[in-house]
Backbone:
């Protein structure tokens, strides 16, 4: 009954059931539109709103102020209010600029990112195209097209700040594509597939089977990718295209209203997309869901309700992990100062690029010589049995996985402890300010 | 790789590491440190070799004799060609081969090297080439150890050449001395002559067999298969291997041993090699490298034909006789020792030739100990005597250097075969087997001359005792003949400590119960036989069958064997064996006593008695003949060198008159021809070229007109033509279709 | 031949390729801006690529290993890569040209006139 | 791909959509006088062609087209435009005669090609095989082909890329030297 491999996407099945007859064309088109309208549009809007709210909240807390807190509970509806304001704002178009291109630019910037969502794996079935065998690469392609919108925007504004911003963006984007792609290749090489869903399903099994812990090279590639993705997304500290202290607002200078908002939707969606890639490739997007999913798929008695539940759970885990990455991106934005453009390019060409090359080579050799141990402890193998552990000569691979896992967990714990301590500290400082101790002379 | 082989491999590589380190940093390390680095390296090797021996002895006991040999061939040069009858594997291999013999040799080399290193730290202390010396020593240790663990003849050859190189470098260590650099060159060249023979033998072997791994070679060319098949050996998959080819091959390989072990025709380099520093003489030219020739013969023993063995034996007996006689009269301390070394090597080679495999190798080991001791002792003396080597300047040194004198004396006792010293066991074994060989020849009705192979060694045993005693007496006994030397003489701890160790070894080296060298060697025979039998079960392996048993008949330790012997009827060879031991006991028993006694009597008062004897003319003549080393150098100089130089002069003359004349003639002819061609060029060719140039210019002016330099015009024209062409084609096609 | 309007066959792709080719050629012929010409060249290359891929996909070729033949796609990738290389070199040449003539008008580049 | 299997020729609709996009964009490239608009038109043409690749089942190629062409080459071109136009909106107007000749050549070529194609299609030279649809796109086989059958061209291309990189860097450096303080 649940022959998922034969059937189409989850959405199709959701609409048309699991029967063998295929829907007609008109229905198909309508269905596609409905999926986009019902699922992706709201998703993107909500995502953008939550991200904007989150960013402002993060910024506020990092600067020791509350952030948005008036509109709605915790200021949650602040984004909605902002949106309303944007819609109502006058839509200005510069007189001397290329008016047609000026109008076109936000859509050019937004559309590719939106298309990239097609391949994002929300769940084992919960993705628009399950069988996209070069899905990861397609996402990358879409992200690389996005920059064209920024360039058009900058040029058509007929404004020197905008043009500078666009040039910087072009420069930065073209350069950072390379380490981005290289570091992704390292992860892909470890996963052995470009299919985003497959690579997610393969990672399930425990903390040590996460993609990032597969080998030291993937572990480093994770960070290379993170830095490169920040730059490719023109996120701080690499936000030179819109650096407000130098270029007013860069390519955004002449924009206002809804067009301006579109750029922001594009940016936050792109953040989600790169975060999603990171989660899918490195951070085990589905947790243990993959294991149960495989069991349910193989079980002839399995019920589709179980599949729906699993997919929803997977989506929750995935969005949570991508959200964590986004949170780190925000955190960095409000922490690090902005480098000069030559420093940015130096980091790309002389640091990240060689690192990427070395990691690629290292991972290739690692793949050749060190067997990988996947699977779930106590299910696929008994971790307490030495013979079982050593089966297939995986001791080295497993040992490295575990060691890297400890390093990773240690880092996260350290950060959490550090942040927690600072938070407590801040509270005590606040308290001290509120009730100053008596000065004893 | 099994543990012993791995340990030995590491032990081999340690000196190489030390060599590299010393090459790079030796000069910076300076005087004491460089030596200690090299010593540490060889000490590590020694420790590893002991570990290897322990792990070897602790191996599986099911073979009775200890272990299975470890054979680790390493494919090196693929030579899968089609020439030759057939190639078996098509690889020229390197590799390791570890059996009991390897273990013993390896430990011995490591131990002697270690002691020589320690000694050298003292001996070379004031030399400015100190780091370089230890660099070479490390390289030598690596090479020698590599040779000992070598599992294929190819590896043996490679390291063979390496030790030759080290020998060259170390003989010429004081290259600013003309005699030293001459000696180095001489050693190198003479060795090359032998090595050519080795290479020829190796070539014959590889050509026929396509394999150089020791067990494979043994199995394929097992000499026992020759018995009853006079035309040769049939090797599976290869065809007939004729007796002549086998003998040529065996003698060729033996030529290498002749060169390296300085046997009779090529012995001239070894005495000259004494120009090198004395520790080098002890290590290379007494204990290890020169013994490598014997080692090689031991390794190829199973494939030597009777003819080849006879050659070996004759070379050996010639050398031992000749060298001992020359040693009688030399006055340079190191020269005496060098000729004594030659003589002892002759014993070993003779042993190999007459089938005393165990005896030869046994003597190699014991000889290494006492000869290293003798050389180190002489080194101590020379060091004490301001690098004075002539015994005429010594005398009475025992008062100044008692430890050295005692150690040297022990070594003398050992080499003379005094009972219960190490040389006694090994030398007697060889001579017993020589007697057995003679007896066997008599029984088989062959010529009585075979007995010479027994008689000469026995006589030389007496001579040996005499000249070694002479050496000791002249050096240590009597009155000091040079007060200056005597005053200066002293001893140093770092130099007599190795002597002491070696002295102990010289005493105990021969006992079965202590080092059990003989046991190891017997085990080597058994286990190699069993190993080849296991790898090639198709035929019975009898490569070592022509070797005599090492134990005296009737003295067998196991009572069961004795019972068997009692009831059994003796075969011809058993009877010969028994007789050999018998005649040996009869003849050699008094050699140490007689020789030493005569030596003491004669040299009690220094040169006094000798000088009296020299007054008789025949004695003087013989003395001069022997003192000039039987005029071998002059002979070689007069024959080979003169021929070479003459040929070279002839070539030069031919070059000067014939070749140069032709060249000059050709030059003249070319000049005349070219002046003719010049005329032709000026009028015919130039005219044509100028005409073409003018024509080209005119054409160019015409062609440059449409070339506007505008790229778009070009593209337009090209595309226009294409468009017109396509339009034409379409029109034609449509027209024909319609 | 069964090739209706609604059934896409090889010829459709080839016609599209022809259209792109001609557009590229016209671009090359009419533009005086060197970069414009470069853009035209890219169009021409794309037209070629469409043909390569379409032939590859419609020819149902089977490679030696038994899988689907990939020659067309592989060479399309090569074309794309070479186009990138060509663009890089061309642009650096244009920059030099611009440096010498302060313009990228190809009409000014006629120093090679014979 | 999914939709191509439906009863209704969804593939055809998409094909016409993409083809129309590509064709119109190409015409825009040919007819536009503004170099930046040309570049934008080229972007749409490239994206449409990528869509066509996707329709043809070559999703990897589509991604390559977008990454390398749209994301790399095109940005390089725009970069060149911005570096070389002393006045951003400068236009080099071609002569009317040239335009006419070009359009004439283009029309003849187009007609010739289309007539030839129609003739070839009419004679069944292309066969009537439908599109071969693989569900699982063979990225792995593509990679193996690149490093297997086509290793030699692959290596040659990589060497060429290296040469181009060095050459472009050299040329760009020469420019800076010539320009001196002016830039």
Residues:
């Amino acid at each position: 009954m649940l022959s998922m491999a034969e059937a189409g996407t989850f959405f199709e099945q959701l609409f048309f059931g699991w029967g063998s007859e295929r829907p007609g064309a008109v229905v198909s088109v309508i269905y596609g539109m409905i999926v986009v309208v019902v699922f992706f549009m709201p998703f993107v809007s909500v995502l953008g709103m939550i991200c904007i709210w989150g960013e402002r909240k993060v910024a506020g807390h990092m600067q020791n102020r509350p952030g948005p807190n008036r509109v709605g509970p915790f200021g949650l509806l602040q984004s909605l209010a902002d949106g309303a304001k944007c819609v109502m704002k006058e839509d200005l178009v510069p007189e001397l600029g290329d008016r047609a291109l000026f109008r076109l630019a936000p859509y050019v910037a937004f559309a590719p990112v939106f298309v990239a969502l097609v391949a994002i794996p929300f769940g084992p079935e919960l993705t628009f195209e399950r069988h996209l065998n070069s899905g990861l690469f397609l996402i990358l392609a879409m992200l690389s097209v996005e920059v064209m919108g920024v360039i058009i925007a900058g040029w058509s504004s007929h404004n020197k700040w905008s043009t500078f911003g666009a040039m910087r963006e072009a420069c930065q984007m073209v350069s950072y594509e390379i380490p981005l792609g290289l570091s992704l290749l390292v992860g892909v090489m470890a996963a052995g597939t470009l299919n985003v869903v497959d690579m997610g399903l393969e990672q399930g099994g425990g903390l040590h089977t996460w993609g990032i812990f597969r080998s030291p090279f993937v572990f480093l590639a994770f960070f290379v990718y993170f830095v490169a993705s920040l730059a490719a997304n023109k996120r701080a500290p690499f936000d030179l295209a819109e650096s407000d202290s130098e270029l007013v607002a860069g390519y955004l200078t002449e924009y206002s209203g809804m067009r301006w908002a579109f750029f922001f939707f594009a940016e936050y969606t792109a953040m989600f997309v790169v975060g999603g890639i990171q989660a899918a490739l490195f951070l085990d997007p589905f947790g243990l869901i993959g294991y149960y999913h495989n069991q349910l798929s193989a079980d002839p008695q399995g019920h589709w309700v179980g599949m729906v539940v699993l997919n929803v759970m997977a989506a929750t885990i995935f969005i949570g992990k991508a959200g964590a990455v986004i949170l780190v991106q925000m955190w960095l934005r409000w922490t690090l100062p902005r480098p000069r453009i030559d420093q940015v390019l130096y980091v790309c060409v002389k640091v990240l690029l060689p690192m990427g090359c070395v990691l690629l080579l290292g991972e290739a050799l690692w793949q050749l010589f060190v067997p990988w141990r996947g699977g779930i402890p106590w299910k696929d193998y008994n971790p307490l049995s030495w013979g079982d552990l050593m089966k297939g000569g995986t001791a080295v691979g497993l040992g490295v996985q575990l060691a890297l896992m400890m390093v990773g967990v240690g880092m996260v714990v350290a950060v959490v402890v550090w942040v927690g301590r600072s938070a407590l500290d801040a509270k005590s400082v606040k308290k001290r300010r509120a009730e100053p101790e008596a000065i004893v002379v | 790789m099994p543990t012993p082989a791995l340990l030995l491999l590491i032990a081999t590589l340690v000196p190489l590491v030390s060599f590299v380190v010393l090459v790079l940093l030796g000069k910076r390390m300076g005087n004491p440190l460089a030596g200690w680095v090299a010593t540490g390296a060889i000490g590590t090797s020694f420790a590893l070799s002991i570990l290897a021996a322990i792990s070897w002895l602790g191996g599986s006991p099911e073979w009775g004799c200890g272990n299975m040999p470890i054979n680790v061939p390493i494919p090196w040069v693929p030579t899968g060609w089609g020439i030759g009858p057939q190639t078996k594997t098509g690889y020229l291999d390197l590799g390791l081969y570890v059996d009991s013999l390897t273990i013993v040799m390896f430990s011995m080399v490591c131990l002697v090297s270690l002691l020589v290193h320690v000694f050298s730290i003292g001996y070379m202390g004031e030399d400015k080439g100190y780091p370089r010396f230890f660099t070479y020593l490390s390289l030598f240790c690596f090479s020698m150890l590599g040779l000992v663990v070598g599992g294929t003849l190819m590896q043996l050859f490679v390291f063979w050449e390496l030790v030759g190189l080290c020998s060259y470098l170390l003989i010429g260590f004081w290259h600013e001395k003309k005699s030293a650099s001459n000696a180095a060159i001489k050693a190198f060249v003479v060795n090359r002559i032998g090595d050519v023979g080795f290479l020829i033998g190796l070539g014959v072997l590889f050509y026929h067999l396509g394999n150089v791994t020791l067990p494979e070679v043994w199995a394929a060319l097992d000499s026992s298969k020759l018995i009853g098949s006079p035309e040769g050996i049939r090797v599976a998959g290869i065809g007939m291997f004729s007796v002549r080819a086998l003998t040529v091959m065996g003698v060729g390989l033996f030529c290498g041993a002749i060169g390296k072990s300085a046997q009779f025709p090529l012995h001239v380099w070894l005495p000259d090699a004494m120009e090198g520093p004395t520790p080098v003489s002890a290590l290379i030219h007494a204990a290890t490298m020169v013994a490598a020739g014997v080692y090689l013969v031991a390794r190829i023993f199973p494939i030597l034909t009777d003819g080849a063995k006879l050659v070996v034996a004759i070379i050996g007996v010639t050398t031992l006789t000749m060298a001992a006689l020359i040693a009688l009269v030399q006055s340079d301390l190191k020269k005496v020792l060098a000729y004594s070394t030659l003589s002892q090597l002759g014993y070993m080679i003779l042993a190999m030739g007459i089938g005393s495999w165990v005896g030869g190798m046994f003597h190699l080991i014991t000889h290494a100990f006492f000869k290293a001791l003798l050389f180190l002792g002489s080194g101590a003396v020379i060091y004490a005597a301001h690098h004075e080597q002539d015994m005429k300047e010594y005398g009475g040194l025992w008062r100044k250097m008692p430890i050295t004198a005692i150690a040297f004396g022990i070594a003398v006792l050992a080499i003379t075969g005094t009972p219960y010293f190490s040389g006694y066991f090994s030398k007697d074994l060889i001579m017993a087997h020589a007697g057995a060989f003679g007896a066997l020849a008599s029984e088989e009705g062959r010529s009585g001359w075979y007995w010479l192979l027994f008689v000469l060694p026995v006589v030389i045993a007496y001579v040996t005792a005499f000249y070694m005693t002479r050496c000791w007496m002249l050096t240590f006994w009597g009155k000091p003949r040079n007060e200056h030397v005597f005053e200066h003489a002293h001893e140093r701890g770092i130099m007599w400590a190795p002597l002491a160790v070696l002295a102990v070894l010289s005493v105990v080296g021969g006992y079965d119960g202590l080092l059990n060298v003989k046991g190891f060697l017997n085990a080597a025979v058994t286990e190699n036989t069993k190993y080849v039998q296991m790898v090639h079960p198709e035929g019975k392996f009898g490569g070592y069958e022509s070797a005599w048993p090492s134990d005296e008949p009737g003295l067998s330790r196991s009572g069961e064997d004795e019972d068997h012997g009692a009831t059994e009827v003796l075969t011809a060879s058993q009877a010969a064996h028994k007789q050999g031991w018998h005649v040996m006991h009869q003849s050699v028993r008094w050699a140490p006593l007689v020789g030493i006694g005569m030596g003491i009597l004669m040299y009690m008062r220094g040169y006094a008695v000798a000088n009296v004897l020299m007054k008789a003319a025949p004695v003087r003549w013989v003395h001069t003949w022997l003192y000039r080393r039987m005029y071998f150098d002059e002979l070689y100089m007069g024959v080979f060198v003169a021929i070479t130089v003459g040929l070279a002069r002839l070539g030069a003359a031919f070059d000067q008159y014939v070749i140069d004349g032709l060249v000059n003639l050709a030059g003249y002819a070319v000049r005349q021809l070219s002046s003719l061609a010049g005329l032709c060029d000026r009028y015919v060719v130039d005219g044509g070229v100028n005409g073409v140039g003018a024509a080209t210019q005119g054409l160019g002016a015409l062609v440059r007109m449409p070339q506007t330099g505008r790229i778009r015009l070009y593209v337009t024209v090209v595309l226009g033509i294409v468009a017109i062409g396509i339009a034409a084609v379409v029109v034609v096609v449509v027209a024909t279709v319609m | 031949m069964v090739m209706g309007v609604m059934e896409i066959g090889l010829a459709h792709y080839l016609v599209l390729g022809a259209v792109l080719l001609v557009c590229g050629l016209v671009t090359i012929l009419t533009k005086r801006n060197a970069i414009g010409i470069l853009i035209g060249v890219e169009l021409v290359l794309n037209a070629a690529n469409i043909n390569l891929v379409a032939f590859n996909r419609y020819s149902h070729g089977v490679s030696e290993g038994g899988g689907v033949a990939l020659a067309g796609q592989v060479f399309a990738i090569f074309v794309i890569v070479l186009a990138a290389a060509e663009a890089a070199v061309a642009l650096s040449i244009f920059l030099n040209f611009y440096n010498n003539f302060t313009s990228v008008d190809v009409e000014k580049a006629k120093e090679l006139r014979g | 791909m999914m939709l191509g299997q439906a009863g209704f020729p969804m593939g055809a609709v998409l094909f016409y959509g993409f083809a129309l996009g590509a064709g119109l964009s190409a015409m825009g490239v040919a007819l536009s006088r503004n170099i930046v608009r040309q570049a934008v038109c080229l972007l749409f043409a490239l994206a449409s062609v990528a869509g066509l690749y996707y329709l043809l089942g070559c999703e990897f190629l589509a991604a390559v087209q977008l990454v390398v062409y749209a994301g790399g080459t095109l940005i390089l071109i725009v970069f060149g435009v911005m570096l070389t136009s002393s006045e951003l909106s400068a236009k080099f107007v071609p002569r009317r005669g040239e335009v006419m000749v070009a359009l004439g050549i283009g029309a003849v070529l187009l007609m010739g090609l289309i007539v030839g194609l129609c003739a070839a299609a009419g004679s069944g030279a292309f066969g009537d095989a439908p599109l071969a649809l693989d569900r699982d796109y063979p990225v792995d086989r593509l990679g193996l082909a690149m490093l297997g059958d086509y290793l030699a061209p692959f290596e040659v291309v990589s060497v060429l890329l290296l040469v181009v990189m060095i050459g472009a860097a050299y040329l760009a450096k020469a420019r800076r030297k010539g320009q001196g303080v002016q830039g």
Summary: Chains A and B do not touch (no CB pair under 8 Å).
